[in-house]
Fold these 2 entries.
Entry 1:
Amino acid sequence: MAVELLKGNVAFAEAAVRAGCEAYFGYPITPQTEALEHMAKRMPELGRVFVQAESEVAAINMVYGAAAAGARVMTSSSSPGVSLMMEGISYIAGSEVPAVVVDVMRGGPGLGNIAPAQCDYLQMVKGGGHGDYRSIVLAPSTVQELIDHTVLAFDLAEAWRTIVVVLADGSLGQMMEGAELPPMRPPRPPSERAAWALTGAIGRPTNLVSSIHLEPSEEEAFNQRLQAKYAAIEAAEVRVEEHLTGDARIAVVAFGTAARLAKTAIAAARDDGLAVGVLRPITLDPFPTAALRALAERVDGLLVVEMNAGQMLQDVQRVVAERVPVRFFGRTGGVMPMPEEIGAAIRELAHEVGAADDAAPWQEVPA
Amino acid sequence: MTTAPLATTPVYERPDALTDVPTHYCPGCTHGIAHRLIAEVIDELGVRETTIGVASVGCSVFAYRYFATDFAQAAHGRAPAMATGLKRVSPERLVFTYQGDGDLASIGAAEILHAAARGEAITVFFLNNATYGMTGGQMAPTSLIGQKTTSSPLGRDAASQGSPIRMSELIAQLDGAAYVVRRSLHDVVQIKRAKKAIREAFEVQQRGLGFAMVELLSSCPTNWGMAPDEALGWIRDAMVPAYPLGDFKVPEGLRPARKGAHA
Amino acid sequence: MTHAERPIADVVIAGFGGQGVLFAGQLLAHAALDAGLHTTWFPSYGPEMRGGTANCTVVVADGPIGSPVVGRPQAAIVLNLPSLDRYEPLVAPGGLLVVNTSLVDRAVARDDLDVVAIPADDVAAELGHPKLTNVVLLGALLARHPALRALGRLTPEHLATTLARVLPERHHHLLGANRAALERGAELAGAAPAAVAPTGA
């Protein structure tokens, strides 16, 4: 494989194809429609399943059906469509079948707009659907990572029998960047589907895929099992990137696109002699609690940067628990924070906590 | 005749496709009959091990307990979408849904129409008892004009509560629908006809002819506030006139040609 | 590399939908990738499918790219007046502004920019391919942008090779014209003195 210039939406769709995705169900919505269009072409030519559903409600329930049959299955959508999928996501979580959902977030609430945003954090990370369920939520920040996370999402979904959300945004979906697609992995033959799957009860007891436990004590036991699984996921699957945090006195905490914007901002801030780094949660659930707590012990202040009004901020505040000042800079409504603005917020925080006072201009770089 | 030895040939047994579990359905409810008919057909076709059912939400939410086949339990109204997903990745399996009128004709109206329009190769059993049984007898999209329910206590009023939806007639309009018939479960003759239709609806799927649906007029004595026999009479006298029995669409060649066969 | 260094170039290309703004950016990005560089192409995307305003940002770097968008681009190509009005104030001091004077009837007001003024619609028409306005201007940018020019890898010849790779076969009869447009743009950029006011349309 070679590095190609790939559009995010096409890249993750093709990555899913190469990860052995057997079925895709979706509904057109900007800014992710290119993914649906790619699947509409690719899946039939490979003899796999593509259905344009009548709604996102139907799409996620088709995903539920195919997942119940033990097939590798995915859907993709954008914020308003994902809101419609919440019912199905809860059922999928409640019946523990594996499925992959890619959310290419856009501005909201309501119809909002089609510009890049990160305002589905709470919806995707904290639930959104009803019940005590959690999803694994991956937050790519480059087209390469969008590809890699899509492949990883299928493996994690099957390993843990859970929903895995790839939480991208309109900029990642629409931009082009050099990236390398994975090699083609052929789909698993139907004869090798999981033992729990609905494959027909040939020579075995019948299987049931259901999320109903009418007896409260049974439902509670099921919930306890789910929580134990989530604890195991938390112990095994946290992924985080720390970028220039070794000597940092200020750290930006940001995910996805906001994190890459922040990297440019801190490069400029470092040019000005500020010791700044970035902590980037790659898994938003499970959240990188330990890494963030350790970082909070070392730095003088944290700046959370998001393309929303402060959603992950709540998790950062929870984890940091007032060890250090936590400030927030965000843009909403589909407005991307420019690195220059992030830089200004970094400088403001540095001055507030005294991290700029002794910052020698150790790296004099002409503008 | 009276001296003949006792017959040892069983004339009535539990089909293999039914589990040996008492149902939760109310006395006199026709769900049990519908379950049995479907199970008998599954046995007769020899497809118990290759059939996957999809239960809906409503009184038949526990259908999966009673069928000895693989089963999924769908969200309210979404059984046709879930069945679409199952069937598309398991084309060699028979997939059927079992849905009530609230599930299919109200909250799941979009899903059933589009599954039919796509010609999904699934078989749908639509139990129409003109009420929401599980939640306690509220007005359904199929409740009759004037029918008193807990949410239409003065009787369904067309001006404010709309008119009953005849789903079979509606769905038969769609090119993707291959087989759409309405039967009733109110007496033995009708029950026998219903079983034939259930068998045909599975055969349509087996032969890859497209979407198949059997609507079954059913009773709900508990929520109708009637004795079981009275409820069967109400199907015959009130429901059948509003929901005429018959074949709305039958694919050519499904039935052997015979004289006087209706289209 | 240890952190996102300053990119070699960030370029905004802006104009009307249909002027090939997004394509010009993609060509630059493809060519950069072919030259072994890192690149991002970031489009404006709106509900209008045709005819609205369009812009894209291309970042070219030696290593991983942080932000694919910039508040103060180092360089801009503006294909019409609204785009000049929007981006003239934003180009970083000392930056490069390439103006299609065929559709701009005012002078560039700032005096701290390197301005390349080319009546690119007319130039493209003279070349016999009026739709290659975008390519003429891209040729001018690549010849004039100090860091991109210094690379020595994004020449008209190199871009022509890239085009041959990315253009669908059915458009290959236009490869020669595209190369000519790139070369003509480069030639005019070389000839245009710095910070000169455009002549107007």
Note: The CA atoms of residues 183 and 194 of chain B lie 5 Å apart.
Entry 2:
Amino acid sequence: MKKLVLFLSLTIAGLHYLSAQNEVLVEAESFISKGGWVVDPQFVEQMGSPYLMAHGMGAPVLNATTTINLKETGKYHVWVRTKNWVPGNWEAPGRFNVIINGKVLKNTLGLENDWTWEYAGKTRIKSHKVAIELNDLTGFNGRCDALYFSKTKEVPTNDTHRLAVWRKTVLGEPTAPEKTITFDLVITGGGLAGCAAAIAAAEQGLKVALIHDRPVLGGNASEEIRVHTLGIYGKYERILKMIDTEHYPNGSYKAKYDQEKRDKNMKSIENISLFLNWRAYDVLAENNSIQYVDARQTATGERIRFEAPLFVDSTGDGWIGFWAGAEFSYGRESVNKYDEEWEKWGELWSPEVGDNFVMGSSVLWQTEKKQTKQAFPKTPWASDVSGNHAAIAGEWYWEFSRNDLHQIHDAETIRDHMLRAIYGSFSKAKNDNKNDNIKLDWVSYLIGKRESRRLVGDHIFTFKDVRDLTKFKDSVVMEIREVDVHFQQNLKDEDKPDFLSTALFFETPKYYIPYRSLYSKNIANLFMAGRNFSCSHVGLGGPRVMLTTGQMGAAVGFASAICKKYSVNPRGVYTEHLEEYMELIEKQQ
Amino acid sequence: MFFNMDQEYKEIALDQEIFNFTGQDTTVVHQLRMLSDSLGAPRFFYADIETPVCADGECKLAKIKVYWNLLGNYVGFGVFEKTPLTKNEHDPFTHADYKKLHQLLGDRYSVLERRKMDDLIDEVPIVGEALKTYKGIDAISGATKKEIKESVVKGGLYSCYTLWHLANGAIVKAMKSHLETIYSDAITNYLLKSSYLDYQEYGLKKLRKEKFEEHIEDVLRIFHTTTPITRAYILKKIPNELFQKEIVTSNFYSKFHEVDKNTRTQLIAKMIQSDPKSSELLVIHIDIMTNNQLESYLELLKKHSAYLNEFIKKELKTYARSKDVKYNLKVTEFIREV
């Protein structure tokens, strides 16, 4: 019998709140019914928690509801941690209010800058059971992190670090997770690379945990982000065909068919334990070796410690490596550092002096033509970004990067900027009668990143490796697709919208990536696959597409089998067992 | 004749042969020539081109004069009245067609670069398995096909394709290499004083750091009129000892509010390499800074007291009391801390 362990949370049992005598903290993401609100865990490392967001694309969403038990009745002050995501001289776009036992609290929320505790009002609680509702007023991405009921009017802290400590105290959370599970291989990040790594390792008999912070697998290829997979299968056609996509236009609803295929295949594979909706939040590394990864259920707050001798970082942002102390890089290197000049494009390709003009993140969206007229609200709060740009469709070049923004630390700002670009451009297009019947059908609320942290391995893959067509004795990934590096259009013409990019293409017959770029230089038991593999900024330009990253994942999965067989770390596969490893790779198809 | 540099063209007095080259069709040889002014200063490359344009096994001869600037970038073309370019069915190009061709040849980013001739007429969407190995852009979609159609002359697809690759192909690199062999300080001077962005960029690239002061007026003029990517280049390259002169600092920072956001980020980061005057010029514009820019600015003020004087404190206090809600809490907190 196939053994499949699929951990799904029971929201009622796991409702994440604590009721003390005089205070109660309710995590919004743990609401029993989310209504039309979505759980957004993308920015936990920056703002402290997953949150609920009213992503209605202009139409107010259904109320999120939950019930809590208060130990004491009486008068309570209610605070809500939220933010005005577009502060300015207009009505805040993400307004909502709180309803307690059917009665709306006095203050509208979502009005203040930055994540902060806004005062919702006071309420008199007459029975221990209390019904709470979040009532969206706009459909434009109001957000709620948590609610705090207190008998005093003392506002909780807004300082991120103190808030984290306070949260643990109020929730009575012990230092370590309640549960520990041990595997042969723990993979964090269920994009194409993580999925391929899991399949390859599981096929070789390893017990694998795949931790992923979304309900569906595939990352940028998932139906939640909808980028089609590009590149070739290399040696891993059998594996990658289980998880790839057709070549539908980016943003197409057709992504859901490949999603069904991918999820079904992943759930059918023996030895893979899927932890969907679990987000890793910490790592312990001792003597440069990872001992465990801690992860939290994104809605209930339940926690698990994952122990293993080997780990894969396929988070895209290199979080596992970062927490473990792995060397990493970010930004554009000097052209001279790795000899990456392409004279034709000069500074746009690779600068004389390094900088932060990295490739940006995209938010895809789709519209549909209906039989009847479709209204869309005015979005004055978006016009700062969208300007006079009008559009009824998005594509890969809807992309944002700016040198004061970090693709990880400022990801929420970047996502919100793209939402303003989309809503504002669509609203502008709706001024034209010919678009009367066009409906904004879908806008992703997840950002699709191209570039972030790159963990450093024994080999740093660069443009020089592509240009020189370097063949390595440990070549485990091959690719014929062009290297394409993006830049923001407004770097060449500042009249262009800042959310559109252009791609520069370098043709190549075939290039190779060595295995040595797929494990950490200084964390002994850490593999990496996906865009956070060991490469330079320009080196990333080609292999960042998802069949190539999938190849990396498969290569890492097979390497982990060699590690287990001989009790060696990832580097040992290269130094001691390369012949056997390459034979194993060669046998794949 | 369609030409982007009319004024310079009027100065042409000398015409000299340089070398022969071929395009994608290596059997047809063209001669590259250099045009110079009366003093012998090089101004353009050009070639009289006669090339077959072939489609469906039928070839026609296209005759055209192509002009490039000193960097090998296409700037114009001319045709002969008796031998106009022709479209399918041998119809001659119209004025609008020539205009479109001129725009196309000047588009270095054209999608034609990465397309084979066959791709241009393939209007059937490519789906499924065939695309798994397709070496395309991250969006081979209807939109991209449309982009091709919109950028070429209707009925003149093959001429456009052939001529684009001639004007923007390997010859560009060869012209740039030739420029290197004749390069001089006089050319740097000419490039920096020109009004063309590509000339300015190249002149800045070639400008040695020790020569920056000599050309500071050109550098500042370019900084205030060029693209963000070139502004970034200037700010990275300008020597600190020059940047921190008060007059230079003032020139860079006095138009903080007029430059793009990426440049503002760099100016804030470079504040501590400038004369403290910069801080005074920045504080009056904190309302247009991004959140991260303001944080960087305040952080630098905290760490470098030379940039925090009474004028700046006063401005910060005024802002903190203002009705601009965007940052007043942040600024208030800063004032409390310092």
Note: Residues 2-174 of chain B form one domain.
